[in-house]
Amino acid sequence: MTLGRKLALVTLAFLVLWSAHTGVGHFGRTQAASFSGLVNEAGKLRIHSQRIALLSIVCGSYDSRESAAIALCLDAIKRSIDNYESSLQIVANAPFKLLFKSDRQQINAYVAELQADWIEYRTAAELVLEPMTEGVLSDQSQYFEANNERLLARAEALTELLVASQRRVQAAQDKVLNALQFSGLLLLIVLALIGYRQGVRPLRELALLARRAEQGNYGWRLDYQASDEVGELVEAFNKSNLRTQHLLDQLREEAEIARCAEIETDSILESAADGIIISTNDGCIVRINREAERIFGYPREDLVGRSVNELVPVRHRKAHGTYHSRYLRKAKARTMGGTIAAVRRDGNEVSVEISLSPVQDGSQQRMIAVVRDATQRLKIEADRQRLLSIMDATPDVTAMFTVDRKLIYLNPAGLRLLRGVSIEEVVNQRFDDLLTAESLRLMCEQAMPKALSDGLWSGELKLWSESVGEIPVLLLLIAHTNDKGKERHLSAIARNISERKRFEAELLQRATHDQLTGLANRVLFEDRLKQAIYQAQRNDLMVAVVFIDLDNFKLINDTMGHAIGDMLLREIGRRLEAHLRKHDTKARLGGDEFAVILDRLSRPEDAIPIVQNLGEALRQSIRLRGRELTVTTSMGVSVYPADGSNTETLLMHADTAMYQAKSAGRNRHCLFVPAMNLQVSERLNIENDLRHALAHDELRLHYQPVIDAKTKVVVGFEALLRWQHPRHGFMQPDRFIPIAEESDLIIEIGQWVLEQACLQARKWQDSGLMPGFVAVNVSARQLREPALTQTVQKALELSGLAPYLLELELTEGSVLQGTVIARQILDEIQGLGVRLVADDFGTGYSSLSFLKLFRFDKVKIDREFVRDMLTDQGDAAIVRATIAMAHAFGATAVGEGVETAAQADALRHCGCDQLQGYLFGKPMDAFRLQEFMQSR
């Protein structure tokens, strides 16, 4: 936009603002004048209504004889009514369009109310105008006195509303005028800013650039874009500067090109990978590069000026001179051919390749010899030939092929697989011809994509040979890429692993089959059983597991030797193979135990004739080394899914049925029934529940008091484990402790008992209720655990209980099972300060060395002797002897199972130190024991 248009646009904007300001002002003045008249008419309504009321009252006061006065008065009332009607009509017909909508609505409402009141008011006034009989006027004074104020109030309210509405309109007009004035001010400010930005500032900067151009600096540009005259001026100036700068740059570039031409020539010459020698026609060297210095071993200054002939071995110089003269007669470019020998400064020869090119240097001709050191290339070629010799000699198949599997190279080992194909014909073959169909699929779907993405793939596949057939190989596939990272070809090295596969098959046979009989072993048997169960599930069939045990096989081994026993086992295996279905799995599980899987059964009864026939076959006499033997078997049968849904359960139930057959007299078979496994199932259930007992807080500790025999004061407690089973209620230890010991759960349970007993004892000690020690039983399995000492120490540290307040009770049997280890562990525990107690003394070995070796702090007399000591002299003697031995070794004697006062008195009379039993208190939980102690 040009400056003229911009000026016209600004002028137009100011004219619009001025016109709007003038129009709004004129409108305001006109509106004010019209509203003044309207307000005046509204005020007249008040005056006319008062006049009508006053005249009506006055006229009503005249006597009928004053007719002239009454006539004047009535005429005045009629004029006032007409005037009121006229003023009200003016107000009602006013448009009020310039007022706000809410004001218009309110004014119209007021006018309507005023008109309604006026109709009633006028009616009253008109009654006055109509004389009654005898010339007397109607007296409406009471009506006017009552209603005149209301009409006046409505007229007054209308007047005030008109004034208020006019004021609001006037305020709005003032705001519009102010807004127009402010807009004009803003327009002026914007105009000033735009004028400065698009006029003053660019012209100032243009003047600055002109001064810089005057100083020879044409590189500056003014960043200003506009379509006006200033913009055109700036654009013309910028183009002028740019053109001038471009001309100067061209001049500098031409000078730089001229200056760098020689440098570039030198740089090219020096950076060339080959040596370059420039000589005259007579062979005088005029220039060499750095690589030529390296090849011949001469410094540049020593070689320039010498003859090229000095770089040729003496034996070749004559021939070189002849060739040089012949070349000069018909000089032309000659590319590199074979290698020739050249002489270095140190006298050694170097193999080089030379290309010659004649060039014209002004009036003189020059020879440019490009010399390439062929030493490394010849070495690489020799290495390549050696590598090819190795690849040709290797027994591994080595091949190179493109990404579409066209052969590039194939060593002789691979050629032997492709009968009748020569080395020259390899390029017409494909790598696919070496592969089996399955291996080709593996190559296309896995091997090549993996190699092309990761660079390498290794795996097993099979090659195909016309003479041998399939050959298992271990293939290494390598992808080779060019400098741009694109695959060019792949290499494959395939090693024959037939021997390894045979060895692996042999190892697999040994790992899955019994070496003596050749039957499946337990590992393969269980895997086959899983598969049979899976197939039975899919096909809605049954599977039978037959567990077979040879009757009295140990007797044969012991009387006839293991060699005869092995022969017997092999014959049993052979008969199993011969008399069972081919798809049935036969296995030797170990020793004289065999197992058979009978699959594809429709009913459990289908297994019975097979088992019966097998029993008959196995009972047939066997002749071994001249002796005839008859071997019977006991067989147990379990059926899927009735007797179990997994291998472990089916084997266990078949084993249980087999033992039932043995118990029934042997030489028979038994089908599993659930009653056989009641005890086993109960044990398994207890073991499984016991594994969750600790996590679900089902174990409890009860405490039985131990009293001093003389003072009858409680001196300690024995912690006794109970199990709050969720279904069976409280379970005594004799039901679950043996199971815990067999399953090693006793380690975790024992640790829990130790920690809880120590924590509870310390709690009672802090509350003043702990009279002495707390005793905890330790099982034989815990004594075989080297970490028992750490377990005890951890329980003491966790609770803060003093070690001398903790007693560990051990039976003779548990200690004597591993005397050396037990002695070491118990010494460590006694070293902590913990006291040891020999529990149930007299029921085990009752060895004096037992007391002597372990030095117990207490000896507890078993309850069996205490129970009958009053009626059995032998038990009484054992009790007295045990107490005496305990005292002799410095130990405290404790009587267990005291239930009557007579037993307590007898033990006290025998010198027993402490007593424990139902007479003094049953085992009770911590809360009841606390009440028990508080009550004593």
Describe this structure in words.
This protein has 936 residues and is of the alpha+beta class. Helices cover 55% and strands 18% of the residues. The chain contains 29 helices and 26 strands. Strand 6 (397-401) and strand 7 (407-410) form a beta hairpin. The longest helix has 74 residues, at 141-214. It is flat. The two termini are 115 Å apart. The relative contact order is 0.03. The model is unreliable at 132-136 (pLDDT under 50).
Which labels suit this protein?
936 residues; 29 helices; 18% strand; 55% helix; flat; alpha+beta
Rg from C-alpha positions? 64 Å
User: Spans with pLDDT under 50 lasting ≥5 residues?
Assistant: 132-136
Q: What overall geometry do the principal axes of the alpha carbons give?
A: flat
**Cα distance spanning the termini:** 115 Å
Main sheet?
8 strands, mixed, barrel
Rounded mean pLDDT is 83
Class by alpha and beta content: alpha+beta
Strand fraction equals 15-25%
The level of helicity is 55-70%
Helical run tally: 29
Strand order of the largest sheet: 18-19-21-22-23-24-25-26
Strand count: 26
